[in-house]
Amino acid sequence: MNMSDKALSVHFVITFSLDLPKPSQERRTRTTRDIRLIDKQNFKEMVSVTLSSSPPDADAETQAELYISNLEEAVNHHAPARTRNITTRSSAP
Q1: Which of 56, 52, 50 is closest to 73 using CA atoms?
Q2: Which domain of life is it from (predicted)?
Q3: The whole model's pTM is what?
Q4: Is residue 4 situated within a structural domain?
Q5: What DSSP line would sit under 52-87, residue for residue?
């Protein structure tokens, strides 16, 4: 640590250096979808066709499972998932 009077004002300048290790960068995997790519009209038609083709005599649980799988298929068709590896960085002090 060093303290000196630079005659700048009534204050003194204090300088020092710290030996701190840099935080390690961490790699993470992110899966995202660009939902802006979805054509709303085509998506709506695809979902309505699959819903109208579901068996009317199926129980509620089967209907729900079919609905979820059809929605997943429609979303995967219109906005496929994209997996990327990213490096996280520490924020600036």
Answers
A1: 50
A2: Eukaryota
A3: 0.57
A4: no
A5: HTS-TTS-HHHHHHHHHHHHHHHHHHHS--EEEEEE
Domain count, the chain: 1
DSSP labels, 20-33: -PPPPPEEEEEEE-
**Domain hosting residue 76, numbered range:** 38-84
- The single residue listed with the structure tokens 């609905």 is 67
pLDDT digits (tens, 9 = 90+) for 19-35: 888 777 888 999 999 99
Do the Cβ atoms of 78 and 43 come closer than 8 Å? yes
Q: Coil, strand or helix: which one is 46? A: helix
Residue holding tokens 């979805």?
38
Tell whether 43 is covered by a domain: yes
